[in-house]
């Protein structure tokens, strides 16, 4: 298969796309941009996946309706207010689409709308209306960073990635931006991710590619076990790289999925590493499971354990908490077959074999766990299936950030 | 039905029981007692409920075997080491029972054994062996506090309660001690609780009473969502108050269950309020659910949400996080029918109606949430069932305590 090469440009790397982000006044803090626009100069095939929380942000309903026909052309997103649990939420989300349409050539029903921030406070559409002409005027083909900045909430770094890949001899591009820091937990439902590509792919296949991909990527991240109300992943394909349209599961589809997985995995790692208050990325690799669900359940349970996450913050090789989290996960495992090792750039250390502790150097373990990317390797020794989940440590700052988020 | 009167005495309030707690040397810190003994001068009927974690502490297996015949006479418990995930764990737990037998009239097979502390470090039985004569010599009928102290790990206060009640004109007593701070989460599995009574009750009925009670009490607490490997609730009945033995579900059984529920609810509240790092007890009362499981799932989901718990630490009425936790709970609810209010000694404030926010005074809310016992009232407006769960806020100190627990 072809090579994937990382490039610059985020959501503007693909042909046809521009982006912008400005301070519209939804947030009080004027130095923080709060409104983003991503625009294609042609209609795109499009797919979205949404939160599975029963409480859904109003924008989810509107986006779902707008994208049902498999096409879209623009994405508008505000931060600072989630437009969720508001009596007039859907009306406001629809107005946001109309405001985009009023200021561009895009039809309201081809706009993807998203909001992120506080739940249950009415979203005043006036600042969005007033800012839209400037937001549209700011659209540019190196505007991805501006958009990535504008969708951030408690994120500390903006999250962008882009790649170049080939489809039938044509050079294609794909790139994405993401936000998401707290309220991130398996079940999709976890963040905002906007991905664009200039590959040509049918409505059916773009939907299939995205919904398959998220099972192993965005559904395998956890920052705090809370599944958010608003989050979604949207993929737009402009088709401007002029490959033969992907309409079935051929080699080009496989290449497309591989590129997509590169983008989504990179964004997952960025999101987990920038979890609220996090100092470390935790990657839990489970192998030897009896079934795929067992592998996934174990990986997610470990990555979600508050006790384990706090131990990682303290660089404490308290592997008993890993065993404990496996034990209550509900997965079908034989505890006496489990082996655990911890690794990072600084090395690898075995801590548990056959479900019991083995002697190891605490100094060596400390050295390994002091790094900022830790891999927890769990071999269940009982089958062929594996899975990876991503998370972060639990820190003082998580509590600080969430102790008084609204003020 | 009869009155229940709170009295002093803990596990020694019931006739026949003595208790003691000393520093045996399992912990390095000499000022912290680490070995407890509870003893009855006659054989008791007995029941236990255990963790549902697949990873079970070795003492669980030994206690289960010893209590299978429905009788027991003594409880030995150490803190500082969980004797879990050790290759020789069961052997060590059996030795602990033998050591009790060697120093008393109690048979080894009538000893309930428990351990709590770090997982995966071999438990040296030598200090227990050496300390047992002194532990037995220290047994006294006001020794409940000593035992309650000795079983504490990261607990900050000892947990004891006792009551007086009547069975067929006879004055009976029941009392308990508990430990449990982190690693506490629904599914039993959550702490150590030892309860004694001088009521006369058959093996069958004591088992039924305990296993029914925990569904609404210990299975409804959560400190951090982690289900521990070691924890259990044990109930011993000496029969020395000379009531007519309870052998079926008659009025006396109902009185017995009511007294038991008083003890267990009181201990649940104490455990939740003393959750690791906690500054507040959170009591989530759900009403109007379609089914009992729905009521329980909602109550537990709210009490377990890290985001909500952090908001309570900050006395922030961020009710959106309550709706969010209801939404992802998996319960069958109609979001548009939900009403939420928050209350404490300082008053009550409505924050959500029909699933949407309503205007409320942030100052008033702050005043209510600054108290140390907060009630979250959730009316699902959709049925007849209710449930209560207990938890605590998420604080800096939780992270501090768990960031480097082993050192």
Describe this structure in words.
Two copies of one chain form a homodimer. Chain A has helices spanning 58-67, 89-103, 126-137, 144-150, 203-216, 251-273, 292-304, 306-313, 320-327, 362-369, 396-403; strands at 5-7, 17-22, 35-50, 71-81, 111-118, 159-167, 170-179, 192-197, 221-222, 232-237, 281-289, 339-344, 347-353, 356-357, 373-379, 385-392. Chain A has 407 residues and is an alpha+beta fold. In chain A, strand 6 and strand 7 form a beta hairpin. The radius of gyration of chain A is 21 Å and the shape is globular. The N and C termini of chain A lie far apart (51 Å). The interface between A and B is large, with 65 and 65 residues.
Task: Provide a brief overview of the structure.
Two copies of one chain form a homodimer. Chain A has 407 residues and is α+β, with helices and mostly antiparallel strands.
């Amino acid at each position: 298969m072809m090579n994937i090469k990382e490039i610059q440009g985020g959501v503007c790397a693909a042909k046809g796309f521009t982006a912008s982000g400005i301070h519209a006044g939804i947030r009080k803090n004027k130095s923080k941009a709060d409104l983003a626009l991503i625009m294609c100069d042609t209609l795109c095939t499009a797919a979205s996946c949404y939160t599975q929380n029963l409480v859904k942000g109003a924008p989810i309903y509107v986006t779902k309706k707008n994208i049902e026909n498999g096409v879209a052309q623009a994405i508008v997103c505000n931060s600072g207010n989630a437009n969720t649990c508001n009596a007039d939420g859907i009306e406001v989300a629809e107005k946001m689409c109309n405001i985009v349409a009023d200021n561009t050539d895009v039809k309201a029903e081809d706009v993807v709308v998203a909001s992120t921030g506080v739940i249950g406070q009415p979203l005043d559409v006036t600042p969005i209306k007033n800012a839209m002409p400037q937001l549209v005027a700011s659209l540019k083909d190196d505007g991805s960073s501006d958009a990535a900045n504008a969708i951030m909430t408690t994120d500390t770094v903006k999250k962008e990635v882009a790649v170049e890949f080939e489809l039938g001899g044509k050079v294609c591009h794909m790139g994405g931006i993401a936000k998401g820091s707290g309220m991130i937990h398996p079940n999709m439902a976890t963040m905002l991710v906007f991905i664009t590509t200039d590959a040509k792919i049918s409505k059916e296949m773009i939907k299939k590619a995205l919904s398959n991909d998220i099972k192993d990527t965005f559904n395998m991240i956890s920052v705090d076990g809370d599944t958010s109300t608003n989050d979604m992943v949207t993929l737009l394909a402009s088709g401007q790289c002029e490959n033969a349209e992907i309409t079935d599961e051929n080699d080009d589809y496989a290449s497309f999925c591989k590129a997509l997985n590169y983008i989504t995995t990179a964004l997952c790692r960025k999101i987990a590493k920038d979890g609220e208050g996090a100092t470390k990325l935790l990657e839990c690799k489970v192998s030897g499971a009896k079934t795929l669900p067992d592998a996934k359940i174990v990986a997610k349970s470990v990555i979600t354990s508050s006790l384990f996450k706090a131990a990682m913050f303290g660089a404490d090789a308290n592997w008993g908490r890993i065993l404990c989290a496996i034990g209550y996960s509900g997965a079908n495992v034989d505890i006496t077959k489990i082996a655990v090792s911890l690794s990072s750039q600084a090395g690898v250390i075995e801590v548990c074999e056959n479900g019991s502790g083995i002697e190891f150097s605490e100094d060596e373990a400390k050295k390994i766990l002091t790094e900022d990317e830790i891999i927890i390797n769990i071999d269940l020794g009982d089958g062929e299936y594996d899975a990876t989940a991503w998370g972060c440590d639990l820190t003082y700052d998580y509590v600080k950030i969430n102790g008084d988020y609204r003020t």
